[in-house]
Amino acid sequence: MIENNHNLWYFSFRSTVPDKVQSNINHPSLLPLRCKITMTSSHLLISNLTKDWIETMERWQLQLFWIPAVIITFATFIANPILLVCIFMSPALRRETRYLLVANTLVADIIFLILNLVTLIGNAVRAEIPWLVCQLSTALLVTASSCAIITVTLMVIDTFTAVRWPLQYHNLLSPARTSSILGVVWLLCAIYPFTLMMMMMKDEIPNNKVTMCLTLLSFGFFKVNNMGEIEMYFFVSAVICTFLIFYCYIRLYMVTRTQGIWHSRFSRARVTVLVHGVLLLLYFAPGLVFALEIYIFQEKNMSQDLRVWISTVNANVFMLLPRAFAPCLYGLRYREIYESLALLLHRHRRSRESTVS
Predict the structure, then answer these.
(1) Within 13 Å and on the Cβ side, how many CA atoms surround 179?
(2) Which residues form the G-protein coupled receptors family 1 profile domain (predicted)?
């Protein structure tokens, strides 16, 4: 659909060019004119796609999905910083690899939620956002989301390493080494989306503005023949993370099945696997839905209403659920974080009492 619309705009503009120019359109001297035609058609296509998207949302009243998105975002803004303070104010927790991984997940979620909220507000007030800013926001959103997913995968690897090699664990995953690994993770997560952004911006006019910034449109507008690369990126990343998670859990069960930690229905091992499984599902499911969005965005016979519905629900509900549950499932589940939080609240209460007296 994108390619057909793009060609339609291209040939509509081209029909206004004199025959003599059209007959020599491939001449090297006319390359700037061809670039201008492509950029103009691209701008018109973006404007029309955005306009159709807004009309569909208004017809179905899909703006109501912004309400739970805002509620989840502000609830997470309260919980995540408190847990980060509990981790970084405790010297003991700062030296634990698992808590550094939890902190990195919370930071990535906060960055994702801030960018998502700013984009949501801009879309709600129909602010004209520069296309370059929209592309940059999309790249940062993908980076933060990918980093959170990979960090959750590293938590499983960390648990496997601690159980499999308990004596060498602190040497293998020291705090300094963990910090270096997380830095590499952020770098790797940023390379592809920012490279893709630069490739897209070569075909666009930097001063273009849109009234709605959507991640799906940012990726969907990319050249159709390069869509396979985007889908392959998400697919390969998901396969690698899934393989590592299943391998670690299977090996963990094989190593510990004779130790009796799985016998009780509510044993710590079972609860840990359940918590990891729920959070991994919540983080991976929106990525799979987004891959489905990209696929149906290219299909000619798909309803525009279906595209908008799936994209809206995924962006405002599914992608925010893991950010809402992460503080509870990971943060408050750890006894040390809970005790640090209780101590922080106790100190705050004592300081208030002393101030009042």
Answers:
(1) 6
(2) 79-330
